[in-house]
Amino acid sequence: MWITFALASALLLAVRRIYEKDLTARFSNFSLSFLLMLFSVPAVLVLFLFFPIPRNIFALPWDFWWPLSIIWIVLYPLQNYLLYRSLREGELSQVTPVSALLPVFNIAPSFFLLGELPSTLGAVGIFTTVAATYLLLTDVRTGVKQKYNLPVLFMIGTVVCTAIGSTLDKVAIEVSTPVFYTFVNMIGASAVFLALTFAYQQQHELMRARESFWTFVVLGVVMALAFVAFATAFTLGPTSYTLAIRSGGFIIAALWGVFLLKESLSSRKIMALVLFVVGTAALAVG
């Protein structure tokens, strides 16, 4: 059952990245983060009709609140800043595959907080995924002075934050329920991103939401369903393997970039994509 939820999360994540790539051209990092969270909350409220919530929401343990505090104050701001810079400045087919690193970076926090470790086949997947990331990281255009591809580097930073946050997610979900945790997570994140929107003087961009109203509505539903599917898979399956399957959604986003956005396709990028697929499959099966 957890595999089904993880696959659903992978598909929805790919759709989300495609939409976000387009929206980064019209919104700044924190204003976009706030709007996406804001439009996701109503969809999560609807899910309350179909999924359970904790019996006593006013007596949740400390294990529910301390992970959320770190996610809200530290991880979300840094993660989304790097994510939207990466999507805005890089090619979709070049930055989205880096999400395959998620289970790799998650190994350490999963071991120390949850006692989980990958198998031998999973280790092979780790090595393959790291090699693929290096290929993308060094895939820079001829004549460019920089040694590394900055959008890819930004996405690596995003994945590190997500990996840490995913383990913290699981700690909090295990003492609550997936839908309730998603709701509280998004409410707190909305408040943080709204404060950052004003702090960085991006509040004038909030009025542009009317121009993309239905896009935000659709994306809000997609985000809510993806988060709940991911959280549910987390409660049923091993952390690293759940993340490996979820990260497989990069294939759809990458193909969208290559065939519909007509992005460049170097030999280094082709090799990296092949290695990412192999590595992700090894992590998932292992």
Fold and architecture overview:
- The chain is mostly helical and 286 residues long.
- The chain is 74% helix and 0% strand.
- It is built from 12 helices and no strands.
- It has helices at 2-23, 29-47, 62-89, 92-95, 102-114, 120-137, 150-173, 178-199, 213-236, 239-247, 250-259, 267-285.
- Helix 1 packs across helix 10 and helix 2 (29-47) packs across helix 9 (213-236).
Number of strands: 0
The total count of helices amounts to 12
Q: What's the Cα radius of gyration?
A: 18 Å
Low-pLDDT ranges: none
Mean pLDDT: 88
Secondary-structure-derived class = mainly alpha
Termini separation comes to: 17 Å
Strand fraction: under 5%
Largest sheet: none
The helix fraction, in percent, is over 70%
What order do the helices and strands follow? HHHHHHHHHHHH
Morphology: globular
Explain briefly what this protein structure is.
This protein has 286 residues and is mostly helical.
Essential attributes:
mainly alpha, single chain, 12 helices, 286 residues
Per-chain topology:
Blueprint: H1 2-23, H2 29-47, H3 62-89, H4 92-95, H5 102-114, H6 120-137, H7 150-173, H8 178-199, H9 213-236, H10 239-247, H11 250-259, H12 267-285
